[in-house]
């Protein structure tokens, strides 16, 4: 079946995300836009996923728990997990690899942890916007060790795309799925034999994707999404 998805959305926990990107607003907007599946993928933290899960359940949306990891090479890597608990466990382990500095809200932006009632319950002090000390290969291995799928983000875009920073798609490890910025050119050899995601990387509510990118899945479940992401194209 076809499920319309946006698998790269930032909440107000990401310092670059607008303060209006509360879990309630994000899930509500996704529902209004007719999406079936979303992933909230904040920078280097999963702390807004519990509220997002409760809201997605209420709206009839499938939430794929995720994070956007910044590797030592400044490459953005999406990590997706079957459960919020697995994402939180990964997030806690990732804290040891964050820069040893506190966030400066006036410079980088606030990092708001919310509940499902749009109430601020905490403000993350760790510097989430910085690069971790994990090389790309180790970051991907860590995601997999926690049962997740590692997906290079917007490989053809900007300073944090894999193709831009590394100049090529590494042969090892093999990434069965990559995210491609739809409106920018991408080397065909980088996506050959792989599943391709087109997501919004939304930092503002209006940027959340419309019903324009569908995934062909056997069922609506996070286990099926991970199976699809970890399988080679055509399997």
Report on the architecture of this protein.
- With 235 residues, this protein is α/β, with parallel strands linked by helices.
- It has helices at 23-32, 49-59, 84-94, 105-108, 136-145, 162-166, 188-191, 222-230; strands spanning 2-9, 37-43, 62-63, 66-70, 76-80, 112-114, 120-123, 149-152, 177-179, 195-197, 214-216.
- It has a single domain (2-230), classed as Metal-dependent hydrolases (TIM Barrel), CATH 3.20.20.140.
- The chain has eight helices and eleven strands.
- The strands form three sheets. Strands 1, 2, 3, 4, 5, 8 and 11 form a seven-stranded mixed beta sheet that branches. Strands 6-7 form a two-stranded antiparallel ribbon.
- β4 (66-70) and β5 form a beta hairpin.
- α1 (23-32) runs parallel beside α2 (49-59).
- The two termini are 15 Å apart.
- The mean pLDDT is 96.
Question: At the third CATH level, what is the topology name?
Answer: TIM Barrel
Q: What is the arithmetic mean of pLDDT? A: 96
User: pLDDT below 50 for ≥5 consecutive residues: which ranges?
Assistant: none
Kindly provide the radius of gyration, computed on alpha-carbon positions and rounded to a whole number of angstroms.
16 Å
In total, the number of domains comes to: 1
| Strand-residue proportion | 15-25%
């Amino acid at each position: 079946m076809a499920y319309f998805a946006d698998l790269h959305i930032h909440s107000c926990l990401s310092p670059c995300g607008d303060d209006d990107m509360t879990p309630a607003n994000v899930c509500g907007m996704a529902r209004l836009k007719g999406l079936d599946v979303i992933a909230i993928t904040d920078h280097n933290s999963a702390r807004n996923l519990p509220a997002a899960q409760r809201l997605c359940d209420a709206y009839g949306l499938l939430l794929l728990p995720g994070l956007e990891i910044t590797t030592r090479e400044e490459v953005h890597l999406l990590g997706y997990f079957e459960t919020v608990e697995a994402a939180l466990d990964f997030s806690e382990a990732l804290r040891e690899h964050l820069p040893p500095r506190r966030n400066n809200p006036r410079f980088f932006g606030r990092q708001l942890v919310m509940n499902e009632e749009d109430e601020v319950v905490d403000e993350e002090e760790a510097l989430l916007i910085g690069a971790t000390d994990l090389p790309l290969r180790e970051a991907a291995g860590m995601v997999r060790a926690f049962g997740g799928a590692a997906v290079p983000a917007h490989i053809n875009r900007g300073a944090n795309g894999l193709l831009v920073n590394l100049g090529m798609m590494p042969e090892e490890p093999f990434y069965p799925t990559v995210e491609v910025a739809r409106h920018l050119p991408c080397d065909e050899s980088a996506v050959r034999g792989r599943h391709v995601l087109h997501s919004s990387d939304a930092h503002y509510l209006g940027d959340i994707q419309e019903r324009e990118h569908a995934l062909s899945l056997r069922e609506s479940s996070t286990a099926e999404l991970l199976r699809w992401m970890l399988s080679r194209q055509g399997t």
